[in-house]
Design goal:
The protein is mostly helical and 229 residues long. It has helices at 7-28, 31-37, 42-48, 52-85, 90-95, 98-120, 122-130, 140-161, 171-190, 198-212. The longest helix has 34 residues, at 52-85.
Length: 229
């Protein structure tokens, strides 16, 4: 009768594997080094995973699932905000009024969740960015970014349609800029030892995004009003 797998052993294998993947990449990591790092046998590894690629694939799937949930939650929250408050105008941004602050708080909260998730999986993202070459995961990070660019682009186009942001910026450029910023932040996180103030990061990012993309006032000269004739 086969010996049942120990769930505690699985947690230990995952922790050790994440360190090995971060240190050596997917191709360079060895199962014997993973098991030695947590005091288990190779047999114990194969009770849980068919291969090191299967283990890494599970980590990638968990990361993608949380990213997908975060994206859907953001879309739902934004739709609810617009239904209740209407689109944000240039005046809202200039006045920093309650409607603008409410949107900024919403976006900050959503991005904080994403940044927290990125911090939890910073080693996995780091491997996807620079340690998965020559494996089936090599293009995974770019599939993620392409999907995120499409999502940001769609949202930006909706705001442009409502005249709630600049209409002289191509949505594709805006989407690539935003997503590219987060990719670079993810790379930076993967090299950090101490956790940064992610709330401050999220707040600063969305202040820059909202105020930098606010609709510009019309450049048409105003008609002069003559007094008396």
């Amino acid at each position: 009768m086969p010996r049942p797998a120990d769930p505690n052993a699985k947690d230990a294998l995952i922790a050790a594997a994440r360190k090995e993947f971060a240190r050596r990449g997917v191709r360079g990591a060895r199962i014997e080094d993973i098991t030695a790092a947590c005091g288990l046998s190779k047999g114990a590894f194969y009770l849980h995973y068919k291969s090191k690629e299967a283990l890494f694939g599970e980590l990638v799937h968990a990361f993608l699932h949380e990213m997908s949930c975060a994206g859907q939650r953001r879309q739902d929250d934004m739709a609810a905000f617009l239904a209740e408050n209407g689109p944000i105008s240039r005046r809202d941004v200039e006045d920093r009024n309650a409607r603008y602050r409410k949107l900024l708080d919403l976006d900050t909260a959503e991005d904080l969740r994403v940044l927290e998730h990125m911090w939890s999986f910073r080693d996995v993202v780091g491997v996807l960015l620079r340690g998965s070459q020559g494996t089936r995961f090599e293009g995974a990070i770019w599939e993620i970014t392409d999907g995120e660019i499409d999502r940001v682009q769609e949202t930006f186009q909706r705001f442009q349609g409502d005249h709630a942001c600049r209409d002289d910026i191509p949505s594709e450029v805006f989407g690539a800029m935003i997503v590219g910023t987060y990719v670079l932040l993810a790379m930076r996180m993967s090299r950090m030892k101490e956790k940064p103030d992610l709330h401050a990061w999220a707040r600063s990012l969305h202040t820059l995004v909202r105020e930098g993309s606010a609709p510009v006032e019309s450049s048409k000269p105003k008609k002069s009003v003559r007094s008396g004739t």
